Amino acid sequence: MKGSKKTLRIFWTLFAFNALFYVPGATFGAYIGVYYRSKGMNVSQIGLLSAIGPLLALILQPLWGILSDRRGRHMAVLRLALAGSAAGVLCYYRADTFLLFAACVSVYSFFNCAVGPIGDSIVVDMALENGLQFSSIRLGGTLAYAATVVFAGMYLKTNPTASFGITAAVWCIMLLVTLFMNKEVRKYKCKKR
């Protein structure tokens, strides 16, 4: 890749952000069903728990988008969602019943459903503004997921609750990465209709 030092720094920052975004899917999403099973949840309960997140996302993603657009503070909303995702996944350490797991899924999903759309919006805008191809940045996610899911499976087999701490740590690292993105993000203002 050719470009100025600034362009290269932006590329690798966006690449890292995108790569990290897919790690929780490999450390948490891929194995949470197995964890539920180990805690005595039956197939119906696991199915219900798995449905909570997508159902909440249908309602909450547009609301997060409206909040982000109306305030013109995409990065602040993204940071809130990242911090909430980190805190939300840690709730699983206290859960051992269906109702507690449902509460954990709800808290985690409330914040987590905002990270992807708002993060992608910021990354795509920054890529376009700096003449970078999103497809090259997106490759970070593919590589990170593929590598992480293999190693996570080996480690989580004997340490299943480590998933929550690892996932929370990744969300926190992503939050730190946004500090390097902040100076490059355009300020948006939606027109009131």
Explain what this protein looks like in three dimensions:
The chain is mainly α and 193 residues long. It has seven helices and no strands. α1 packs antiparallel against α5 (98-129), α3 (43-71) packs antiparallel against α4 (74-90) and α4 packs antiparallel against α5 (98-129). The longest helix has 32 residues, at 98-129. The relative contact order is 0.20. Mean pLDDT is 90; it is low at 183-193.
Can you tag this structure with a few keywords?
mainly alpha, Growth Hormone, Chain: A, globular, disordered C terminus
Secondary-structure map with pairings?
Blueprint: H1 5-29, H2 32-38, H3 43-71, H4 74-90, H5 98-129, H6 134-156, H7 162-181
Helix pairs in contact: 1-5, 1-6, 1-7, 3-4, 3-5, 4-5, 4-7
